[in-house]
Specification:
9-stranded mixed beta sheet, 3-stranded antiparallel beta sheet, 24 helices, elongated
Length: 546
């Protein structure tokens, strides 16, 4: 174990043990704590109010003082109006103190550890599925205030929504108990509550230590193994999400995808168009049919306009290769199709390759993040710049990109702009009847060879073959995206986000990809009409990537 990691664990253990020692040493005092006597011993009303606030602060640390005991005692000791007011203020203090304890004891470490176990994932899923309403439900049904606050602090819930939602769920019973006063004072089995709380803390601490040590041994056993298991080594279903149109490497990526699907016998679950340009759907169909897939499962962004006309080839490909334009351009609603595909998939069995904006998968996550995180093993994305900068796929929809960075919890590997920009692939000779060739010809314009940066191709390559001899992965990095599409990263050992780093020459990688994109003896599976004749377009700029 690394020193810094061990030191952090040691600090958390020391704090946890210290709390247990305080509880054990003062057990009898806590068991028979006379809140009423403490309050009434103060010489003036301001001092009495200060004592109550102090009791709430201590309660937030030691965790085992029964909440109802405090509410009732304060209600008996003070005038009703003051009692209600100071109990409300005390609840805010207690919620804040215990939330801070959760951050100190857990922080991002707890989030990562929870995500590694089935029971932990259930907690995360419940919290994530209900969001603010989940916090309110926890409070209104009377789950232990301080243990819930510890968890929510460790989860780094946004503080003010957490505080206000928690207060809304707790305050009704606080006010009720305060007003009832000693009418229910004898009904609280305080000694049992204290014993139960102490036992729960001790058991939880022991379980945590045992699981941590077991996990450490497992990590030692797996040391040196790649973070990402490629599809060539572990068969999973594949989804590809493309913004086909603005650049021709999306078409190239689909060609490479079909070669890999055949080579490794991997099931293709669906193809998604994240633009709203329906001619992109038809271009995808033309490529699918060329590679022998006559009825692709195809979804399209049906939301706000996204790159609706930003293509030099989609419409021409549609007219040249699709007999029935309207049916060729048709596609299912992307969000609904994602839900259906993932609902039918086994847990942790899907890899998604995104080679466009995050519009579609953000919609899927916003619709049901629990389903998405449960079924998706990994996402491989052509997106961003490492370590920072603006990039087309992020800049065109920064809100969706930010949502994915925040809500997707499993492994996310990025092939940044810098990876593919100097890997030039395409066609050195005419390939009549090949829609991928025509996409390159129409987009690049001019004379042969038709070459283009391989932004999207590298993402597909990595998804299927991983590091191989061409790449490695960065250390774990957190990712943030601002409203202007600025992409930035920072080291974060708890993050599941990594970036592809090239370990081979651009020419070597280009030769390998070209052998997939334009094999020496292409053999189309269907007969296609002649390629469309259109005016040559200007060469693409480096920024106009897919």
């Amino acid at each position: 174990m690394r020193f810094k990691h061990s030191f952090g664990l040691a600090i958390r253990l020391i704090i946890a043990v210290a709390i247990l020692v305080v509880i054990a040493v003062n057990f009898k005092t806590l068991q028979s704590l006379d809140v009423r006597a403490l309050v009434e011993s103060a010489a003036s009303l301001p001092l009495q109010l200060a004592v109550v606030i102090g009791i709430y602060a201590v309660k937030g640390i030691v965790l085992v003082v029964p909440a109802s005991l405090v509410y009732i005692a304060v209600g008996v000791s003070l005038p009703t109006g003051w009692a209600v007011a100071v109990n409300i203020a005390g609840i805010f203090v207690e919620l804040s103190v215990t939330y801070l304890m959760g951050i100190i004891l857990g922080g991002p470490y707890v989030t990562k550890k929870l995500s590694e176990s089935k029971s932990g994932k259930r907690i995360l899923n419940t919290y994530e599925k209900h969001d603010k309403s989940g916090i309110f439900i926890m409070r209104i049904i009377g789950l232990p205030i301080d243990f819930c606050s510890l968890f929510l602090g460790a989860m780094r819930s946004r503080f003010f929504p957490y505080l206000l939602t928690s207060a809304a769920g707790i305050l009704p019973r606080v006010i009720l108990f305060t007003i009832l006063g000693d009418k229910v004072y004898d009904l609280i089995p305080m000694q049992y509550v204290v014993i139960a709380g102490t036992v729960i803390i001790a058991i939880a601490l022991i379980v945590w230590i045992v699981k941590y040590l077991a996990g450490s041994l497992n990590k030692e056993a797996n040391y040196g193994k790649p973070v990402y298991t490629p599809l060539c080594e572990e068969k999973r279903g594949v989804i590809i999400d493309t913004d086909i149109g603005p650049d021709c490497d999306d078409a190239g990526a689909l060609a490479v995808l079909f070669e890999y699907l055949k080579k490794y016998d991997i099931p293709l679950l669906g193809i998604f168009n994240c633009t709203t340009n329906v001619y992109g759907n038809a271009a995808i169909r033309a490529i699918c049919e060329y590679y022998g897939l006559d009825e692709p499962v195809l979804g399209c962004n049906k939301g706000a306009p996204m790159l609706p006309d930003d293509s030099k080839y989609s419409k021409a490909i549609t007219k040249a290769y699709c007999k029935y334009e309207n049916s060729a351009c048709a596609a299912e609603n992307a969000q609904e199709l994602y839900t259906r595909i993932l609902s039918d998939a086994a847990k942790n069995s899907v890899t998604i390759i995104t080679i466009g904006t995050f519009t579609n998968i953000a919609a899927a996550l916003n619709s049901d993040s629990v389903l998405f995180n449960e079924k998706v093993h990994s996402v491989i994305s052509m997106a961003g710049k490492y370590p920072k900068g603006k990039e087309f796929n992020i800049e065109k929809d920064p809100i969706s990109a930010s949502a994915v960075m925040e809500k997707y919890r499993n492994l996310h590997v990025f092939s940044g702009h810098e990876v593919g920009k100097d890997i030039m692939t395409g066609f050195a000779a005419e390939r009549a009847g090949n829609p991928v060739y025509d996409c390159y010809r129409l987009h690049c314009g001019g004379e042969l060879p038709y070459l283009n940066p391989s932004y999207d191709l590298t993402a597909v390559q990595y998804a299927f073959e991983g590091n191989s001899s061409f790449y490695s992965l960065s250390k774990p990095m957190s990712v943030s995206v601002d409203i202007n599409g600025e992409f930035s990263t920072a080291k974060d050992k708890f993050s599941n986000k990594r970036f592809i780093i090239k370990e081979a020459d651009d020419e070597e990688i280009a030769d390998y990809l070209n052998a997939l994109l334009d094999p020496p003896a292409p053999a189309p599976r269907i007969e296609t009409p002649a390629a469309p004749q259109v005016e040559a377009a200007a060469a693409p700029t480096e920024e106009a990537q897919a």
